[in-house]
Each structure stands twice: as C-alpha cells, then as structure tokens.
Amino acid sequence: MEDWGGVEDEEQEQYDDDDERENEEEHDDLDVHPTSDDIDCFALDESEEEATLKLKPIDEQLEIQHEIQDFKNAVPMLGDDYKLIDRLGTGTFSSVYKAIDLRYHEWDNSPWLGHHPPASSAHYQSVPKPPGSRVFVAIKRIYVTSGPERIKNELLLMELCRGCRHVSQLITAFRHEDQVAIVMPYHRNEDFREYFMELPMPGIKEYFRCLLRALRDIHARHIIHRDVKPANFLFDPRTGQGSLCDFGLAQRFDSKAPAHGACLHTTMSKDDAHGKYRTKSEYNSDWVRSQQVAARKKSKTRAELHAPRGTFPFVFCLWLCSWNELSAKSHRSIFPHPLSSWPRRTEGRHSVPPSTGAVKELSTTGVLR
C-alpha cells in the first residue's frame, strides 16, 4: 500500500485538536444540533431502519427485491456476512444497498473506526457499536461497465482516506468473477431537496463544517474528489453530521503541478490498451508549450471550408431530406430548384420525403434531378 500522502497520525490529531477550539468558539450554534458528546443521539432506530423497504410503493419493492436477489446470486459470499434489506441509491456505474452486518461483533473494526477524540466532530465515527446491536452497512455494487483501473483506483483512494473526518470509510471489499462489492458504514441521511429550503443557519454551518473538514483531510493526502455535489455528501439534519462518499472519480495529485495544458493521460499502447495516467516525471514542459504555440498559430488561420472528398453528397442528402414544407417555402429564394416542386405526399402535419430513387440519385451525384 502506498504512503498516506504525507499525513501522519500526529497531523491528524492536530486537525482533531482544531475541532475542539472551533467547537468552543461556536458553542452557541452547536447547541441547536446534537454533538458527539452525546453518543445516544446518533443511535439508529433499528426497527425503523430495517423496515424502510416497506414504506416504498409495491412496484418499487418488487424491483428492489429482484435486484437484491440478483446481487446475492452474483456475489454468493455476501450472504454469509450480510443481510441485504433495501436499496439506497443507483447511478450510472453502481448501485448502493443497505444491509445488516451479521458478524460485526466477531471482527476487529478498529482499522476503519479511526481514533477521533471526544472533542472532534468526527468522534462518532470512532465509537464501536454496543454488543448485541444490529449494525447497518452500505454495500456498493459496481457494474461491469466500470473499468478495472477505475475500480482499483477507487479502492486504493478509500484505503488512503482511512482516518479522515466525515469521509465514508472502507470496511472491506469482495470480488467474484466480474462482480465487485465495496462495504462501507451506513450513514443515515435525507434527500438534499427535502431540507435545504428549511435548514436554519446553524444547520447550514454544520453542513459546511463537515464538508470542508472532509475536503481538508483528503486534500492533505493529495486526493481530489472531483465529484463533490449534494448527492455525494450524506447529511443528516437531525444530528448535523455529514459524510463525503463516492470516490469513483477521485484522483491523486502531485504536490508540484505539471505544465499548464499538459495531457494527464497517454494514448493506447500494446501494454495499456486504454492508456494510463502520466506521472509527474513523464511531463515534458517544453514540448507542451511548443504545442500550445502551434495551436494558437493554427487557430488564427482561415478555417477549412470544404468537406472531405466524398462526404458532401451524403451529408447534403440527409440535410435536404430533413426539411419540411414550411422550411422549403421560407428558403425558396436560395435554391434554383424549389424543394416544393418535388413530388411529395402529405399526411396530416407530416411530410413524406422524396422517393427512394431520387434520394439514391442525390447521394451519388450531389444533385437532385
């Protein structure tokens, strides 16, 4: 595993100490929302959380149950440790499901719980669950449409983010054939659209306090999230706690910035069919600048007005055939042979294009006779 990007435990403790000073300065505002000193306020209603699927419409319930069964069949080892109970969200490259960790109390959870002191706003992340309680987790199913390098990158960055405040932590991950599942802690949250109009000023401060502390910690590890938006920041207005999630687009960055305009990705090669990300040592600043100068000179020259040889008849045919009667009349003065003179058959408001033979002749000669 790579290093932590220059962040040691002492520096993380310094960030937590900053929390204590900030909390003391804004004590009046923090009284509105529960703080991490009262751990009971973060406890979930286990019966309520387990029954969230029943609150959804019947057709959606059947759809989610079908997805859950398909997920269990695709990754059989999940059934031994987790009980899938609901779907939390879905996207282009993945879906996230809520599950119960059946063996939470049998494992050592300290690596992902972190060591945040009671004065830290992220202290709730480090508090273990009481014995005998049901522990909920979020399991992310990554679709096969996502490339292996992207999946590897997301897992690596989540591993490097362990110990960050208000950042979704990596518990474990599974791979079965072409299926990948990532297990993370479950964070109760509400849809941003449901509360942002009514969230009071102290709640807004809590929202940005958690978000900016999360960004501060991951930036200290030289990680850029690249997809910060309300859907990727899970905020609970009841407790004032938020968690930054979804590192599918995140990237590591070098402390020394490359030349302005440098390409961050190589072209395909024999060893890398999809190319690869360039490192800092692979940038050629002089070559990048010379290409920029050449591009500026080319942009000042006259644009090419002629289409490539052989493409004009076909493109022109598609363009003409897309015109309706109204456009033909409005542009009659432009064309020597009006489009309205073509044999056409009208049905309602829609027009039928020229005959197949006329189109074929146009596509070969560029002129409709």
TrEMBL record:
A Pfam family matched in the record: Pkinase
Enzyme Commission number(s): 2.7.12.2
Residues of the Protein kinase domain: 82-369
Annotated catalysed reactions: L-seryl-[protein] + ATP = O-phospho-L-seryl-[protein] + ADP + H(+); L-tyrosyl-[protein] + ATP = O-phospho-L-tyrosyl-[protein] + ADP + H(+); L-threonyl-[protein] + ATP = O-phospho-L-threonyl-[protein] + ADP + H(+)
Region (Disordered): 1-38, 337-369
Keywords, comma-separated and alphabetical: ATP-binding, Kinase, Nucleotide-binding, Transferase
GO MF term (any one): ATP binding
Bias (Acidic residues) ranges: 1-29
Enzyme class, broadest EC rank: transferase
Family: Belongs to the protein kinase superfamily. STE Ser/Thr protein kinase family. MAP kinase kinase subfamily.
Protein name, as recorded: mitogen-activated protein kinase kinase
Species the sequence originates in: Ephemerocybe angulata
